[in-house]
Amino acid sequence: MYSKYWLIIKDDAKRTFEVCGQATNENSFSNKTYAMQKAGMSVSCTTPPVTNKTSSKELIKITGYVQEDGLYERLLNQHMEITRSYLDLDEF
After folding, report:
1. Considering only CA atoms, which of 89, 8, 75, 1 is closest in space to residue 39?
2. Are 45 and 9 in contact (CB under 8 A)?
3. Which residues fall within 8 angstroms of residue 91, CB to CB, at 6 or more apart?
4. Mind listing the pLDDT tens digit for each residue in 15-24?
5. Number of CB atoms found within 10 A of residue 8's CB
6. CA–CA dist 16, 49 (Å, integer)
7. For the chain, how long is the longest CA-to-CA vector?
């Protein structure tokens, strides 16, 4: 069994990805990605295990995607804005 996983977020609309780091439990990361998807964002995540072939985040490549630094932070901010717009609509 693997003890650590890479946290990789992908923006499927712009075909970019970012390796966010390693974790032993990826539940929070996956839940945040799922919340973004429910808000209508075109994002996905993968959590492959850390192996000898992928021991460094620079070695991780995703076919058809370009690496973008700061992608996860940008997506979190975008999700926050979408969530705020829902709250603004509910005010009386």
Report:
1. 75
2. yes
3. none
4. 999 999 999 9
5. 23
6. 20
7. 56
| pTM assigned to the model | 0.87
Pairwise CA distance, residues 69 & 63, whole Å: 17
**Which residue do the tokens 């705020």 mark?**
84
With 80 as the cut, is the pLDDT of residue 87 above it?
no
Residue 60 buriedness (CB in 10 A; 0-12 / 13-18 / 19+): middle
- Of 35, 29, 69, residue with least CA distance to 48: 29
The CA distance from 53 to 44, in Å, is 23
Distance separating alpha carbons of residues 24 and 78, to the nearest angstrom: 26
Tokens for 8, please give them. 């990789």
Q: Which regions of 1-92 does DSSP assign to beta strands (E)?
A: 5-11, 16-23, 43-46, 66-67
Task: Name 30's Cβ contacts closer than 8 Å, sequence gap at least 6.
Answer: 45, 47
